[in-house]
What we know:
Elements: E1 10-11, E2 18-19, E3 26-34, E4 39-40, E5 50-61, E6 68-76, E7 79-84, E8 88-99, E9 115-120, E10 135-140, E11 143-152, E12 157-167, H1 176-179, E13 184-186, E14 189-198
Antiparallel strand pairs: 1-2, 3-14, 4-13, 5-12, 6-11, 6-14, 7-10, 7-13, 8-9, 8-12
Amino acid sequence: MAQVCVSQNLGIGGGILSIEPHSVPHHVFDQTFNSVGDGSFSAQTTLPGKLMIDSGIQTWTNPSPMPARVLLRVQRAYRNWQTSNPNAVQIRDRYTYAIGGADPRVPDVSSVYNGQSGSAMDVGAQFNGTPYIGVYWEWEDGTLIEDWLGPIPPGADLKVWYRCNLWTPPPWSNNANNNNPQHSASVRSTRIQMIAFPTQDSTVVG
């Protein structure tokens, strides 16, 4: 029988040359996390604010004999929110990750974040200090962000943690919209995907 050298991205089981599963891009994680905080909200003037989505720590272990690069995809559902004169609202999110045995940092959006959206309205107040009537609505399309993680060594863990928070930058008016405050937000869900990609083999096996 002939002796041959092949890449670790190939197999020769039973004398048949084949392509190993890890040698092509493939989904290794795909899950949607729903918001637990949709609906009306009150003052959230202290960061990080109201927790909307928390994925917890999600782990993938590289089972292949080769390092892998992972494409992380964070797909946000469409959002909408409502705020009243003269208040403001912001929705922030962040993901963190770790490679190896450590856990990722808690994704605190207080100072560092991957995405932010929101709005504010201030059309003034009447002579007695009561804000004028005014309500602001906004609808935001879904968005997608991607990031390359790795390389992930053979047998090593990739851990990813995602959070989304809502907060209301101060000051906060309790008598907004002429004493008829209307404040609500829906972020619905975020889909987290991890797609593993092969790396080039720098060695051969005989």
